[in-house]
Amino acid sequence: MTPREINIGHLSTAYHSNWILIGNDELEKDLGLKVNWELFGTGPLMIDAFKQGKLDLGYMGLPPALIGIDNGVPIKCVSGGHVEGTVMIGKKNHKLITLLNDDMGKVLEQFKGSVIGTPSVGSIHDAILNFYLEKHELKDQITVKNYKQAEYIAIDMEKGLLEGGVGTPALAVFAQTILDSHLIVPPNFLLPDNPSYGIFFHENIIKDQPEIV
């Protein structure tokens, strides 16, 4: 990277604020820098890019960032993005959580002996799903399959390889376009008010170019 450029990683999540910045040139004007945007399928992949020195800034979920920091990746969170943002989808035979007394355990019991898809290990969606599987003692009865690109969760549901999926609301919308599925657990039921994602800077930028931060 030259001193006149900044490399920013982001996810495909449609409601992340980076899309507003990508849609215009205000950020480049404000910073006086050339901005290079790079799309990543999951947060853990973005962490790998930070580790390799390919990124200066990234928009991603907190769990992969925390895991990365714990493993020595030199990044710091400088701002929060939004709260919540994880949903669970199922096929039409799966009941909504509101029809099961708002009981997440009963929702998951519908998937005993089945496979649920979620983004990469370490993503916030994977972390939330596994939290509830452990809480309701279902880890040995439900298989979790991880994907580097969330859209493939819906595709494999359509193929009959998965019974459900956990991811962003965009996953629920996409799934409904290719198979007979529906949203069974909305964001406010999955760790309510969880800080879904943040804005992270490489420590070199914070140290050497604090005016950018």
Task: Please explain how this structure is put together.
By secondary structure, the protein is of the alpha/beta class. The chain has two domains: 5-82 and 195-208, 3-Layer(aba) Sandwich (D-Maltodextrin-Binding Protein, domain 2), CATH 3.40.190.10; 87-189, Periplasmic binding protein-like II (D-Maltodextrin-Binding Protein, domain 2, 3-Layer(aba) Sandwich). The protein contains nine helices and ten strands. The chain has helices at residues 18-22, 26-31, 43-51, 62-70, 104-109, 124-135, 151-158, 169-178, 203-208, and strands spanning 5-10, 34-39, 57-61, 75-83, 87-91, 115-119, 143-147, 164-167, 181-185, 195-202. α3 runs parallel beside α4 (62-70) and α7 (151-158) packs parallel to α8 (169-178). It is elongated, with a radius of gyration of 18 Å. The relative contact order is 0.21. Keywords: Signal. Belongs to the bacterial solute-binding protein SsuA/TauA family.
Short note summarizing the structure:
This protein has 213 residues and is α/β, with parallel strands linked by helices. It has helices spanning 18-22, 26-31, 43-51, 62-70, 104-109, 124-135, 151-158, 169-178, 203-208; strands at 5-10, 34-39, 57-61, 75-83, 87-91, 115-119, 143-147, 164-167, 181-185, 195-202.
